[in-house]
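Class prep. Protein, please:
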Amino acid sequence: MTITLPPPIGAYFRAEESNDFDAVARCFLSGGVVRDEGRLIEGRPAIAAWMAEAKTKYHHRTEVLSAHEADGDWLVSVRVSGSFPNSPITLEQAFRLTDGAIAALDIR
């Protein structure tokens, strides 16, 4: 089954897979935010650093399982595997898009 994602979300997952942290950050608005592990990460430089830190810490890979739009957000279910307890796990990533870029990502 092919999962169709909006261009900025598809670009985000491709950049994450290739470990291109600056490309991950460019998927966001300049003031975009990420909520992950109880932290709020704001702005492209901080988002690039967050992804680099997460990849170094967890050595994770992400597989998109499903995606749908609900109430203005894109809800993407992903299987994340890496060097952390209970790997692999399934998470929901809620993306808010604005002006063709990611304005917010909430990882739950």
Remarks:
- The domain at 7-107 is CATH 3.10.450.50 (Nuclear Transport Factor 2; Chain: A,).
- DSSP finds three helices and six strands in the chain.
- The radius of gyration is 13 Å.
